[in-house]
Design brief:
- The complex is a heterodimer of chains A (83) and B (207).
- Chain A has one helix at 23-38, and strands at residues 2-7, 11-17, 41-48, 54-59, 71-76, 79-80.
- With 83 residues, chain A is an alpha+beta fold.
- The model of chain A has no long low-confidence stretch (mean pLDDT 94).
- The N and C termini of chain A lie far apart (38 Å).
- The longest helix of chain B has 38 residues, at 2-39.
- The model of chain B has no long low-confidence stretch (mean pLDDT 88).
- Helix content of chain B is 58%, strand content 12%.
- Chain B has 207 residues and is an alpha+beta fold.
- The chains are: A alpha+beta (83), B alpha+beta (207).
- The interface between A and B is large, with 28 and 47 residues.
Chain lengths: 83, 207
Amino acid sequence: MKFLRMRPGHGEQLIAEGDPAVDADERALVEEFRRQLDAGMWAAVPVRSRTGRREATMVQRFGDIPRDTDRVIFFPRAAGGAS
Amino acid sequence: MIAALIVTAIVAFALMADTTVPAVARRWEGLKARRRAHADGVPAYDPGRERRAEQRARELLRSCVNDEEWEMYRDLGFLRVWGGQAMGPEEGWDLGGAPYAYLVYPHKPIVAYLPQTTQLLNEYCVEFPDDTRPFGSVRLPDSDDVLAKWMALKGDEQRLIASANLHLPGRQVDPRKVARDLWRLRQWERTRMERAARAPREASGQA
């Protein structure tokens, strides 16, 4: 599983990678997941629906990440724009 | 004679000043801002870096959205995302079951509309500012901005809409531009469907 983060001037950056089935990797991924959410990121997982359509699901807990997903994308939390 | 030339020069300078002084002032301010940023340790603006970032962002977008959505963005410069709420984009709405959709532009408000009538509903102004400013800017690459909106609309439409500033149509996105984009979208979809219908016939003709 890869954690990617969108960043200005970069595109996405790989910020963590590991196999959640391995305890040490899972701990590191959980820690990084919390760090990103604490830093104000939103986390999304690209998924496929039953009909094969590409969709996305937002996750707020590490446990919500589908176990078979290969990437989680972090991006800055939405804020109201030009008011 | 000399006096006339001097007067002419002064008049010409005064006329030109209206256009040149603001441009010079803008360049001067830009130069000062770049110097300040450089002094603060922020790397100088690099168009090549921004281009590479956008290229990466486009690849990520392509890998996440459906093929027709990718082609729509590639060809038209925006995405259409269907709304998923039963009654409408916001609480308290009742569109009578009519489907609604959003036009997602890079770094512009999301425009909600009714596809059946092309009536515009609202503009939702939303940004994803990265306060870490790795290169002095909070703005994600264009395609990352579009992907962030797409994922948030698909994954948690209500939360995204609740985070946005709501405006009536036309506040930031010109309704004439939206009308033109909706027309372009219809043409694009028609061409795509015709091509898809032709493909099996051509394949069977070749066989």
